[in-house]
Amino acid sequence: MTGLPDSAAELFRRDPRPPNEIERRRSASYEAWRQLVVAGRIAHEQLVADLVGISRCVHSPDAYAFRYAIPEDLPNVSRNRLAAALRDTLARLPTESAGKIPLEEVAIRLVVFFGPVPMEWLSDSAIRAAFSGLRPRDVEFREYAYYPAALDKITVADPQRLSLLLYDVADAQLLCAARLAQPAHLTALHAVFGHTAGARAVFSYLACDFPPALDIPAPDNPRILAGLITLADGMPGDAVSHGLFPSPITKLARLCLASIGHYPPTAVLDAARGAYDVGRSYCAHDAVACALVHPEISVTERADLIRHLAAADPYGRAVRRWRARKKFWRIARRYSSIAC
User: Fold this and answer.
1) Strand residues in the chain grouped as ranges (E)
2) pLDDT tens per residue, range 35-75
3) What are the backbone dihedrals phi and psi of residue 44, each rounded to the nearest 5 degrees, phi first?
4) Burial class (CB in 10 A: 0-12, 13-18, 19+), 157
5) Among candidate residues 1, 2, 5, the one with its CA nearest the CA of residue 32
6) pLDDT of residue 317
7) 124-132 vs 159-166: helix crossing angle, rounded to 10
């Protein structure tokens, strides 16, 4: 192949790191290569070689999912050629020299950049790695995190095979996958947890925002209970290990555990009373909701809690900031037995 677009792409082929806008020549070379892919003008063997070269550079901290992304609306011929090249590249990875990250993660990143792909193209270890890498915060920002973005691009034709692969994945990661709510994944996840009605209720509940629109389910599976405890990452009102404030799935896990009396009532009530204190790392709406659903906290104690939190502070305000007040009253109306 000859011509300006082909020669312009050579710089990117020699240096296939994620394009950097500051390095304008290399970024322009990537755009030229990208246009060749979209137009279907790169021969199969050359395209495989290009993807293999990219696979050696995906360890870069700048290799965010959007940097190498090819448009989803590719012409069918170009999409098929890219898919065929990606399939051959994934098959070649085990024979390539090892890089700075495991081959499973390289495969996952290539899927994010150039997928979708059928599950059958990936090794069992790569599929397990995609599920095992899920974290509560990443689930909420899936377009910026490799593992949830990869799961969005892996198509599953055989949920039974997937369920067999998922038996060894940690319970908390499986519950994170349930929040992603991919239909084929949910079928496999239901199989892992025994197809129980309680598991289905928990999955639907974990897909909600906080506070949830659905009733709080009671987990009927030891693995689900263990996963919720891991996701809770501490007591209601606690900052989490991966950042200051808990993700929605963490708040939902704490609320579910509180509703079955998993936490000491005194500790939950104390956390709720100080949920909006000055100096807190975040507004602990989760602690308030947990106190209002805890079976060992009486109606009188709940009423006292709401009066305490709604009382004006020395500056004539109740819970600080209008957004916090709005969510506080949403929680109070939903979970309190007192008229608000």
Assistant:
1) 117-118, 154-155
2) 999 998 999 999 999 999 999 888 765 555 457 888 888 89
3) -55, -50
4) exposed
5) 5
6) 47
7) 70
- pLDDT of residue 16 exceeding 60, the answer is yes
Q: Are 86 and 112 in contact (CB under 8 A)?
A: no
Give the span between the Cα atoms of 200 and 187, in whole angstroms.
10
What long-range pairs does 180-183 form, CB within 8 A, spacing at least 24? Answer: 180/134, 180/139, 180/142, 180/148, 180/151, 180/152, 181/207, 182/151, 182/152, 182/156
| Residue of 231, 225, 235 lying closest to 287 (CA atoms) | 235
Span of 128-142, 159-173, 301-315 with lowest mean pLDDT: 301-315
Q: Are 235 and 275 within 8 A, CB to CB?
A: no
Backbone phi, then psi, for 232, in 5-degree steps? Answer: -60, -35
The residues pairing with 154 across neighbouring beta strands, listed in sequence order, are 117
Q: What is the mean pLDDT of residues 282-304?
A: 91
pLDDT, position 80: 93
